[in-house]
Structure formats: structure tokens, C-alpha cells
């Protein structure tokens, strides 16, 4: 490859290291080349294990294998996550029992529950628990909080494991809101961690309806542990429209796709 080509690859890796993901359209604009040229570079770099291609761009080759800590994840696509959390809250009604997992995206749902009455929130998230307690003290949350016990993961501010699974199995919920590490149209929902995957499965089993919250960086990503097939999900809320080649799979699985409103207060 020419020196210019290798320099472009180094630029792609630099942006990838800074942002965690690159987009074909943005790279084409930055490097003043066609999108076809960028896709060619990404194909080559994927084969070289220098990155991992996903729909519309690429992520770090280890990004879907190693889970960043909770405080780091909160800073990834934070504006998009706020929009998604707000959109998800609009599907919650008074008097419902809802499950909110420990994802950095689902955490934003709590900030938009002030108008709902007599809710019951079941969560395994230490961050969600603290936020709900704070909001209840300030009169911004009306309802009950049920915290699932289990093995504490201090890095990711969550509980999981066999005790958590057993406790979760005792509940029946109206809706579960989950934030996962990857969603593929063919392989379904995946997670970094086996304990988290098993608890996510249990949450889905205990709820009448499951909504997955994900920003565009999770699209087409396949991580270590499978949680469920796509047809086990009722709704996906994202900041972008689904890829065109996902339409048939979404229709077959009867999954509603919701794009979070662009306006954020």
C-alpha cells in the first residue's frame, strides 16, 4: 500500500482510539476521499485485526470483548443516551412495575419519571438505586424501589450472579428496559459478561414486555455471551434508524424500532 494509504489508516486508528468508533461518512469527509475508499480501508484493517467493522463504520477490535467501567461508559455518546432514556420513559405508565438494568443508557430513564405515579422499579444497578433514592428525597420520584441482591461488581456498579437470578425469578413485571453491549439481526442480543447475560435473560422472562435501549455504536456488534434472539424483544429504542438490510428481520421478529427525538431539553 502507498504511504498515503497507510497514513490514512493511521488517522483512522487515531480517531478510533479517541472516540471508540469511526463512521464511514465522517472519515470520507475528513480525509477528502470517497466512502468506497474508506470502506476498502476498513475491510483491509478488519482482516488485519486492527479494528472491527460494524454497520456504517468500525469499532476497536477489542471493544466488544472488554467491558469499560461504568464511569467510563457513561461518557460514551452521552447526549444520545439522554435522548434514548427520555424516549423510553414515554412508554412507562402510572402504577406499572418496571425493571431497569445497570446500563449507562437505561440510567437516564430515571430522570424522566417525575410525572409518573405509584411506580415500582426493580433494579440491579447501584447507580440507579442511588439516583432513585436521591430523587425520592427531592419529591421527583413517586413509588417503590426494589434492589436485587447478589454478587457486587464494584467496577460496573451492579449486582449479578446466582443469588440475583434467584431473587429476580420471584418477580413479575410489566416492562423490562435493558441496555446491552451488542445487537445483531442474525445473532440477537449479546453481553460482555456471562453473569450479566443470565440476569438479563431472567429479567426478560419476568417481564410482559422488553425494550432494548442502545445507541448506534451497539448496532451490529456481537459480544461474547448470547442473551436472546431478536424475536424475544418487543421494542428497540436508538438514536438512529435501523440499517436497510435489517427491515426484514425486524418485521419477521415483530420488533418495533423507535428513533429517539432529536430535541433534548
TrEMBL record:
<feature type="domain" description="HTH deoR-type">
    <location>
        <begin position="5"/>
        <end position="60"/>
    </location>
</feature>
<dbReference type="InterPro" id="IPR037171">
    <property type="entry name" value="NagB/RpiA_transferase-like"/>
</dbReference>
<dbReference type="GO" id="GO:0003700">
    <property type="term" value="F:DNA-binding transcription factor activity"/>
</dbReference>
<dbReference type="InterPro" id="IPR001034">
    <property type="entry name" value="DeoR_HTH"/>
</dbReference>
<keyword id="KW-0805">Transcription regulation</keyword>
<keyword id="KW-0804">Transcription</keyword>
<protein>
    <submittedName>
        <fullName>DeoR family transcriptional regulator</fullName>
    </submittedName>
</protein>
<dbReference type="InterPro" id="IPR036388">
    <property type="entry name" value="WH-like_DNA-bd_sf"/>
</dbReference>
<dbReference type="InterPro" id="IPR014036">
    <property type="entry name" value="DeoR-like_C"/>
</dbReference>
<dbReference type="InterPro" id="IPR050313">
    <property type="entry name" value="Carb_Metab_HTH_regulators"/>
</dbReference>
<dbReference type="InterPro" id="IPR036390">
    <property type="entry name" value="WH_DNA-bd_sf"/>
</dbReference>
<dbReference type="Pfam" id="PF00455">
    <property type="entry name" value="DeoRC"/>
</dbReference>
<dbReference type="Pfam" id="PF08220">
    <property type="entry name" value="HTH_DeoR"/>
</dbReference>
Amino acid at each position: 500500500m502507498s504511504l498515503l494509504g497507510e497514513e490514512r489508516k493511521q488517522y483512522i486508528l487515531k480517531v478510533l482510539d479517541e472516540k471508540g468508533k469511526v463512521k464511514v461518512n465522517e472519515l470520507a469527509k475528513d480525509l477528502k476521499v470517497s466512502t468506497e475508499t474508506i470502506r476498502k480501508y476498513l475491510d483491509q484493517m478488519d482482516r488485519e485485526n486492527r479494528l472491527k467493522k460494524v454497520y456504517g463504520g468500525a469499532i476497536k477490535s477489542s471493544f466488544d470483548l472488554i467491558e469499560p467501567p461504568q464511569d467510563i461508559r457513561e461518557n460514551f455518546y452521552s447526549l444520545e443516551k439522554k435522548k434514548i432514556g427520555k424516549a423510553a420513559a414515554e412508554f412507562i405508565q402510572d402504577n406499572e412495575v418496571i425493571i431497569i438494568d445497570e446500563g449507562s443508557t437505561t440510567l437516564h430513564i430515571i430522570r424522566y419519571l417525575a410525572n409518573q405515579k405509584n411506580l415500582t422499579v426493580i433494579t440491579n444497578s447501584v447507580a440507579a438505586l442511588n439516583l432513585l433514592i436521591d430523587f425520592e428525597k427531592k419529591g421527583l420520584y413517586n413509588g417503590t424501589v426494589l434492589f436485587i441482591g447478589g454478587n457486587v461488581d464494584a467496577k460496573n456498579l451492579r449486582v449479578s450472579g446466582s443469588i440475583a437470578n434467584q431473587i429476580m425469578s420471584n418477580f413479575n413485571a410489566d416492562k423490562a428496559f435493558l441496555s446491552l453491549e451488542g445487537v445483531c439481526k442474525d445473532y440477537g442480543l449479546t453481553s460482555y459478561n456471562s453473569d450479566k447475560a443470565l440476569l438479563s435473560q431472567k429479567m426478560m422472562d419476568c417481564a410482559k414486555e422488553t425494550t432494548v435501549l442502545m445507541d448506534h455504536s451497539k448496532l451490529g456488534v456481537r459480544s461474547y455471551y448470547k442473551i436472546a434472539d431478536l424475536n424475544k424483544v418487543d421494542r428497540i429504542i436508538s438514536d438512529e434508524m435501523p440499517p436497510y438490510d435489517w427491515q426484514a428481520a425486524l418485521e419477521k421478529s415483530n420488533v418495533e424500532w423507535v428513533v429517539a427525538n432529536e430535541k433534548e431539553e
